[in-house]
Write a structure and sequence with these properties.
Elements (H helix, E strand, L loop, with lengths): L1 H30 L7 H8 L24 E7 L9 E4 L2 E4 L9 E8 L5 E7 L7 H9 L5 E8 L8 H9 L13 E8 L10 E4 L16 E7 L4
């Protein structure tokens, strides 16, 4: 008798559970909107967000990091091989570049007004043919006081370069102009009428070496870049 009662109660409990489950399902189907978020969407929401680094902001003259406020940005890149022209950038303005008529073989020079940061003149001086060393000497000597002179070679900047021109550039602070050789890659920045900070990157040179040249007969490009305080005068 006790066994029969126990079985009846178990059957009753099972029927009650089934009825509750059916009613709950009916209630959900009747009251939950059809546009409810799907399981796939819920699974997508549960995924961890993918973190992506923001695209780096371009800096003046393609510096990796911005110059501090109150500074001029500059970048000087020598030519490379026969086709890659020299580039001189100041405050994000390409004073000398491949698409510039004032860029060419020899020594490229840009003169910048230090107070305004604006270019006064740019010119290149062929040093393989002709006599342009004297023209370069006059160009540098006639640069106004309180100006910056930025220089870069492309191809050959030494064959026709005379000693008086080298001496003039040396007086501006160059320590490598006297060592320049056939097709040396050379870059230099100088100030006329004031002094640049000692820790500023001012000059580099890379000589042609047939065993190490990047291009056939030409060494690799070299560059200098930096930030010049605006309060030096």
């Amino acid at each position: 008798m006790k066994l029969i009662r126990h079985s009846v109660w178990r059957l009753f409990g099972l029927l009650l559970t089934s009825l509750a489950a059916w009613y709950l399902g009916y209630f959900v189907a009747a009251h939950v909107p059809q546009n409810t978020v799907s399981i796939a969407v819920l699974q997508e929401m549960g995924k961890k967000p993918v973190l992506r680094a923001p695209a780096p902001k371009r800096q003046k003259c393609d510096h990796w990091s911005p110059c501090p406020p109150g500074n001029f940005a500059y970048r000087i890149l020598s030519g490379g091989g026969k086709q890659r022209r020299a580039k001189i950038c100041f405050e994000d303005e390409q004073l000398v570049s491949e698409g510039n008529d004032d860029a060419g073989s020899g020594i490229n020079i840009a003169i910048v007004n230090y107070k305004t940061g604006k270019a006064i003149s740019t010119k290149f001086f062929e040093m393989w043919t002709g006599d342009h060393s004297s023209e370069m000497t006059d160009f540098v000597r006639n640069a106004p006081e309180e100006t910056l002179l930025l220089m870069a070679t492309h191809d050959d900047g030494s064959t026709k370069l005379k000693d008086d021109a080298k001496k003039l550039v040396e007086e501006l602070g160059s320590t490598e102009i006297k060592n320049i050789k056939f097709r040396s890659s050379w870059v230099f920045i100088a100030a006329k009428g004031f002094k640049l900070p000692d820790n500023l990157q001012k000059e580099k040179i890379n000589h042609s070496d047939q065993k190490k040249n990047r291009y056939n007969g030409w060494p690799a490009e070299i560059q200098i870049e930096g930030c010049i305080p605006r309060n030096l005068i």
